[in-house]
């Protein structure tokens, strides 16, 4: 399966290498391909292109850009290039303002989410929130003393969520499906909680687990 990843930051590079490791074909999308020269040397089978090239290439697309740039990035990718495709949304709506006592600020309010805005922007794509509630270093086959971590996901298309859950299984995660797009109002703020130990104690190695 061909995976198009919109982004050139740590998340895009980590997931790109992870998908390659698991046998997928990968293209990363950026406005400035030279940013990815080193990564491409280390990941010789990967391709690099524009946002639009990458959205066209991907049978499944991952959105891994700065939250404030998500809407513009999807416009550059071409919403029609995403029609009918699963889009894993790893973004968080982090505002430009600095954190307060380690607590990040979001540019969204409690009764909305970035995923819902993006789903409204690209009506015929199938957005699935995933990978937003853990640091990039722990995204692919992480090893925790406490066992397999839980990835909280949501989205409006059941088949897309099943496909994402299969990927998460290969990437060493158990999946907790929290329902439709509105659940992103609860899943996106997990990023704020996840980052607090990092900002306060420089502890960036942990993940959430749902117990029952
Ligand atoms: N870092 C983590 O550990 C982590 C963990 C979970 C979730 N996330 C979320 O994942 C996303 C990616 O995070 P990241 O740390 O990998 O990278 P980032 O620094 O947040 O974002 C880099 C990407 O954003 C794009 N971008 C920035 N400004 C833009 C603009 N004005 N127009 C279009 N594109 C623009 C860049 O495009 P170009 O390539 O063209 O420069 C680049 O691909 C974020 O939403 C973040 O909140 C991050």
Descriptive account of the structure:
This protein is an alpha/beta fold. The protein has an 8-stranded mixed β-sheet, with helices on both faces. The protein is globular, with a radius of gyration of 16 Å. It is built from 8 helices and 8 strands; from the N terminus they run βαβαβαβαβαββαβαα. Helix 3 (51-57) packs across helix 4 (70-77). Residues 7-12, 30-32, 35, 64-67, 69, 72-73, 90-92, 94, 132, 135-136 line the site of NADP nicotinamide-adenine-dinucleotide phosphate.
Beta-strand residue fraction: 15-25%
Strand order of the largest sheet: 3-2-1-4-5-6-7-8
User: What is the average per-residue confidence, as pLDDT, rounded to a whole number?
Assistant: 98
Oligomer: single chain
Secondary structure: number of strands = 8
With helices defined by DSSP (H or I, 4 residues minimum), what is the helix count? 8
Principal-axis shape equals globular
Distance between the termini: 34 Å
Bound molecules: NADP nicotinamide-adenine-dinucleotide phosphate
Q: What is the H-and-E element order?
A: EHEHEHEHEHEEHEHH
The major β-sheet equals: 8 strands, mixed
Structural class: alpha/beta
Low-confidence stretches: none
Helix content bin:
25-40%
Q: Rg to the nearest angstrom? A: 16 Å
Offer a quick outline of the entry.
The chain has 212 residues and is of the alpha/beta class. 33% of the residues lie in helices and 17% in strands.
Outline the secondary-structure elements:
Elements: E1 2-6, H1 10-21, E2 25-29, H2 37-42, E3 47-49, H3 51-57, E4 60-63, H4 70-77, E5 86-89, H5 114-121, E6 126-129, E7 150-155, H6 158-170, E8 174-177, H7 184-187, H8 190-201
Helix pairs in contact: 3-4
Bound molecules: NADP nicotinamide-adenine-dinucleotide phosphate.
């Amino acid at each position: 399966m061909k995976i198009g990843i919109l982004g050139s930051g740590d998340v895009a590079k980590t997931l790109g290498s992870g998908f390659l490791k698991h046998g997928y074909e990968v293209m990363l999308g950026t406005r400035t391909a030279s940013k990815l020269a080193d990564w491409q040397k280390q990941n010789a089978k990967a391709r690099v292109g524009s946002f639009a090239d990458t959205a066209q290439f991907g049978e499944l697309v991952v959105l891994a850009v700065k939250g404030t740039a998500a809407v513009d990035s999807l416009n550059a990718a071409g919403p029609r290039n995403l029609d009918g495709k699963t889009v894993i949304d790893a973004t968080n709506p982090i505002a430009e303002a600095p954190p307060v006592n380690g607590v990040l600020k979001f540019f969204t309010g409690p009764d909305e989410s970035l995923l819902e805005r993006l789903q409204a922007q690209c009506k015929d794509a199938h957005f699935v929130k995933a990978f937003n509630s853990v640091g990039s270093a722990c995204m692919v086959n992480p090893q925790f003393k406490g066992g397999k971590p839980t990835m909280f996901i949501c989205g409006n298309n059941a088949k897309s969520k099943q496909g994402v859950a299969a990927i998460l299984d290969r990437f060493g995660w158990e999946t907790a499906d929290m329902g439709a797009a509105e659940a992103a109002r609860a899943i996106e703020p997990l990023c704020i909680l996840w980052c607090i130990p990092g900002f306060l104690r420089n502890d960036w190695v942990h993940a959430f687990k749902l117990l029952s």
